[in-house]
Design a protein that fits this description.
By secondary structure, the protein is of the alpha/beta class. Helix content is 39%, strand content 24%. It is built from 13 helices and 15 strands. The strands form two sheets. Strands 7, 8, 9, 10, 11, 12, 13, 14 and 15 form a nine-stranded mixed beta sheet that branches. The protein has a six-stranded mixed beta sheet with strand order 2-3-1-4-5-6, with helices on both faces. Helix 9 (231-241) links the parallel strand 9 (221-225) and strand 10. The radius of gyration is 21 Å and the shape is globular. Bound molecules: P-hydroxybenzoic acid (PHB). P-hydroxybenzoic acid (PHB) binds at residues 104-106, 128-130, 175, 227-228, 256.
């Protein structure tokens, strides 16, 4: 059994084997396969996710409903869908995990949808944010956000606050295309006009050409999405070099661009940026202050960001479900338990939408400010109970 090599298994053999093996046999241990991009271009957000997971376990212990929680980490090494799928299959067939979790980027999450469905393996998406992901498997649940969920409120805010013309600049893959589409839809429905759009490559984008073009075009405002890895710091550096941050062009973005983990590196050019997102390091609540203090104690070199909160809340969701089911991890019971689950998160209260298995949450409009010497995303407006408008 253990000798079967998962990558060599075809879909049918995999499905039969996975079905035969479930439910998990190791009665006293609950195994969770943690599949993420621990090395490569998304290593920083994957580390944030991992730190969130570890912090939750440190605070809440590694035993739930009398069972020991064992995390098995697997590194995808970047946006590599085939590798994500292979690792997920291996974790199911060889390690007999009870859950899968992780996934910073959309292509990797999408790649495990069929695997999760065939094996009936509850899979917690802790970041990947393209709207469509949760529609791809009934065994997917997402604790993070969707890009349309956070983009539409920003577009509405912009239209209502004097912004009439916007040029959009997004990464050319799932979440970027969601950002472009949902911004345009909500902005134009509220009287604004998108005057141009560009999609930039996900891999090694040459931001200076795009920045120069938009500077020459001179729109009233731009709307930007790039994923929160090293790109936010790079694009802000380029905008500063090309004089965009000191021009009259207003910069709007999703909170990925002013990622709390990158803000200090972005420096003063980021001041004044208006963004929308579900979590800010600066969020004013007792729970967030506790979370930040605990995180700082463990990981002094890193500020927790929205991906760390995704990891933290994902563990909270898994613990809550195991506890509720007293450790009986029948996959359909697990998925039923996720639906409607409420969590008190450092970002504010959240609920898993029973219909979509996505998060219903407050979306905040923020401005980059300097507070007590630190650059932060200061929340100044919000829309409560936002569902994913992409579905
Ligand atoms: C994604 O690939 O879905 C993704 C990655 C990083 C982000 C947001 C979305 O900051």
């Amino acid at each position: 059994m253990k000798k079967i090599s998962a990558p060599l298994l075809g879909g049918i053999a995999f499905a039969a084997l996975a079905a035969w093996m479930s439910p998990a046999q190791a009665a006293d241990t609950i195994k969770i396969g943690f599949v993420a991009e621990f090395s490569g271009t998304f290593a920083l957000p994957a580390r944030e996710m991992d730190d969130g997971v570890k912090l939750y376990m440190k605070q809440h212990g590694d035993t739930v409903a009398g069972k020991k929680i064992e995390i098995i980490r697997r590194d995808i090494g970047g946006p590599k869908p085939e590798e994500a799928k292979r690792l997920a299959q291996e974790l199911i067939v060889r390690d007999n995990v009870d859950f899968l979790m992780g996934f910073v980027v959309t292509p990797n999450a999408l790649a495990v949808a069929d695997v999760a469905s065939q094996a009936k393996k509850p899979t917690v998406i802790m970041n990947a944010a393209t709207s469509i992901i949760t529609t791809k498997s009934p065994y997917f649940v997402r604790v993070s956000f969707t890009v349309p969920q956070i983009t539409a409120p920003l577009a509405v805010w912009a239209a209502k606050n004097g912004v009439k013309q916007v040029y959009t600049m997004v990464s050319d893959y799932g979440p970027g295309i969601d950002a472009e589409t949902s911004f345009k839809k909500a902005f134009e429905a509220n009287g604004g006009a998108v005057v141009g759009s560009v999609r930039m490559p996900l891999s090694s984008p040459e931001f200076s050409a795009y920045a120069q073009k938009v500077k020459d075009l001179g729109p009233q405002a731009i709307f930007v999405f790039v994923p929160a890895n090293d790109q936010p710091a790079q694009i802000m550096k380029t905008f500063a070099e090309r004089g965009l941050t000191t021009s009259t062009i207003k910069i709007l973005a999703t909170g990925d661009v002013t990622d709390d983990a990158a803000l200090e590196q972005e420096g003063d050019p980021a001041l004044g940026l208006i963004t929308s997102h579900h979590y800010s390091y600066d969020h004013d609540s007792a729970l967030n202050k506790e979370f930040i203090a605990a995180f700082a104690k463990e990981y002094a070199d890193l500020r927790p960001n929205f991906v760390a909160v995704g990891g933290y809340d994902g563990m909270a969701a898994i613990y809550a479900v195991i506890d509720k089911l007293h450790g009986d991890l029948d996959a359909d019971k697990v998925m039923a338990a996720f639906k409607g689950l409420k969590i008190d998160s450092p970002r504010g209260p959240i609920m898993i939408d029973p219909d979509t298995r996505d998060v219903i949450q407050t979306v905040y409009i923020r401005k980059v400010e300097r507070k007590d010497g630190k650059l932060v995303n200061a929340e100044f407006d919000k829309v409560e109970d936002v569902k994913d408008p992409g579905k």
